[in-house]
Fold this protein.
Amino acid sequence: MSDDDALIAELREAVADGALVTDRAREAARAAFTWRTIDEELMDLVHDSAATGELRVRGAETVRAFGFQARDLGLEVELDDGVLTGQVIPTGRCRLTAVGRDAEPFVIEVDDSGFFSLPFTLTGAVRFVVEVGEDRLSTSWVSF
Amino acid sequence: MERGLRELVLAARAGDESAWDALVERFLPLVCGTIARVGLRGAEADDVNQTVWLRLVEHLDGVREPAALPGWLATTARRESVRVRHSDRRAVPVDLSSGPEVVADGPDVDAELLRAERGRALREALDQLPEDRRRLLLLLIEDPPRAYAEVSALLGIPIGTIGPTRARALEQLRNAAALVALAETTEETR
């Protein structure tokens, strides 16, 4: 192949790659900036069942589990067959909210031992917000 | 003159939305390309794209070296895509006896970065060409290729001039792409 033919092939690939960018993708990426929070402490994603490859399969469903950690607080969540279960560690009074990128936030009831379990139907990007007293902590965004 | 990567990251961190939009414009092809080549399309691809940019927003304050940003984006997009593929309920169940699938993203991420960089330089270079040369090249890259007679009819130019014009347009494209790439390297080592 001549240099010119090679360049034509490269250009074809470059133009095709440019066409992979949709207006929808651009809007979502731009809109992400409005979710910028400066005052909240971030809980990092420290454990992800899919990233570590330890996916468990029960029947036809896949169980997804995430672990988040901030300095003084941990959160474990697991989605199995449409039911979200998990625990806030250490236990104590707190308020837990699920925030969907495309849905209204909703409060998750946490019992005195820090456990919770509820039907969960949010799709797309989700983050969890834990409020303990005056402190407000947000997890990284994940999608189940 | 385009704003440098470092400047854009610092401005976005300070709350400048136009700087964020510029970052999106610059790296969206990298993110979308990475997601597409893991094999995701449609709603799944949109979800991953959204997650990647939301992660960047929260990660923005932690970016110490702006030059590392493209690598971070490609790695995050790839990992998130691989994860979604694994959890895809329509996917064939993984053979669990073969052990966990390793997410080896090193070489793939490097390939994506190179491809995105080169692609961006070529698309920018193409935009800089005179309109007639740009239109000619866009016709010539079509797959399957068009016959010169067809190109001649579409552009209203004699068949005999297509070959020489193609050669000159490609030469100009090559030089412009090299200049775009050079400007980028200079900016990043500044």
Summary: The two ends of chain A are 46 Å apart (CA to CA). Chain A touches chain B through 49 residues (CB under 8 Å).
